[in-house]
Amino acid sequence: MNSLKRILLVEDDPVDAEMTLKALEAHHLANEVLHLRDGAEALGFLFLRGEFSGRPDGNPAVVLLDLKMPKVDGLEVLRQIKGDPGLKQIPVVVMTSSREDRDLQAAYRLGVNAYVVKPVKFPEFVDAVKQVGAFWAVLNEPPPGSVPRGNRPKE
Question: What total number of domains does the chain contain?
Answer without folding.
Answer: 1
